[in-house]
Each structure stands twice: as C-alpha cells, then as structure tokens.
Amino acid sequence: MRCAFTGPRPKSLPFRFEQSDNHYKSLNDRLTDKIAQLCYEGYLDFYCGMAIGCDLLCGEIVVSLMPRYSDIKLHAVVPFKGQADTWARDDQIHYQHLLQQCATQICLHDHYKNEYYMERNRYLVDNCDILLAVCDPDKIPCRSGTGATVRYAQAKGKQIIFVPPIGT
C-alpha cells in the first residue's frame, strides 16, 4: 500500500518550522505517530514531493522509522531537475541528504515551469492509496498547493488523513 504527503511550506505556518517551537515539536510527534501507524497497517511505500516544509519533514520521519519497519521505502517525486538549486545552502544540503535516502527518484521534467508543481501533486495523488495532509480539514486553504492537492484527492475518492498543523 502507498501513502503520499502534502502540506504547507514553512512561510505558511505561524511557527515557520522553528524546531525549538512547541507547535513544531507537536506536529513532528503527531506526524511520527500517524506515519508509524500507517507502517504498522502495512503501508510500505511513501511518496514525497520533496518541497521545503511538511514534505521534507514527512520524508525525514519515514527515514527515521526505517530501522523499525525494514520494508518501508521512501520515493522522491521531484517536479523538475534542479528543484532545490535556488534554495538556501542549508536547505539544499538537507534536500540532497534526504534524496540519497530515497529508494527511487522520480523526476517529472528536465526544466522549470511553475505548473510542474501541480503536476507533481497530481502524480502523488494518482499514485497513492492514502494521502496524509498537513491541513485542518475545516480550513482547507483555497489558494495553495496543499488545498489544491486535497481537493484533487477528494475528487479522486482517495482516503485522506488530516493532521492539523497546530495541534490541540
């Protein structure tokens, strides 16, 4: 069984992915619990869009669970070659390290076009059995990649697990 991830980038969250922030720690813990539960239920393949923020966090969690669930695999779905070329150096290093941990690297295009991000998101949904969305189900954003991906998954009849970015 296959799971894909979607979620916002740091700028869209009030805690901006500051690892010292309690909201970040809570999100990390809740995502770890959900992904571990999926592993326990037999999900073996996890598809990550490799964007800064929730994508990379979920990918890191999958890698951290590999010693416990030896059959799981992380698959990178990259919209175009050089996706991380304009990122800050630390983010590029982080991206490359995670990319090296992936069982497969699926690159959809050789060059940049903005619409390739949505193509990547549709690929994630089309190739998963369940979507884990870092998103409040009562506040799905209208104008965001995460919101569009969730609506696409809903239209496709995919099961969605919602993990609100701010826990209760």
Task: Characterize the structure shown.
This protein has 168 residues and is an alpha/beta fold. It has one domain (2-162): Rossmann fold. The protein has five helices and six strands; from the N terminus they run E-H-E-H-E-H-E-H-E-H-E. It has helices at residues 22-40, 54-65, 89-100, 115-126, 145-155; strands at 2-6, 45-48, 73-78, 104-107, 130-133, 159-162. The protein has a six-stranded parallel beta sheet, sandwiched between helices. Strand 3 (73-78), helix 3 (89-100) and strand 4 (104-107) form a beta-alpha-beta unit. The longest helix has 19 residues, at 22-40. It is globular, with a radius of gyration of 15 Å. It starts with a strand and ends in a 6-residue tail after the last strand. The model has no long low-confidence stretch (mean pLDDT 94).
DSSP, total strands = 6
- CATH topology (level 3) name: Rossmann fold
Reading the helices and strands in chain order gives EHEHEHEHEHE
Ranges where pLDDT stays below 50 over 5 or more residues in a row are none
Distance between the termini: 29 Å
List keywords for this structure.
Rossmann fold, globular, 5 helices
Short description:
The protein is an alpha/beta fold and 168 residues long.
Summarize the SSE layout with pairings:
Layout: E1 2-6, H1 22-40, E2 45-48, H2 54-65, E3 73-78, H3 89-100, E4 104-107, H4 115-126, E5 130-133, H5 145-155, E6 159-162
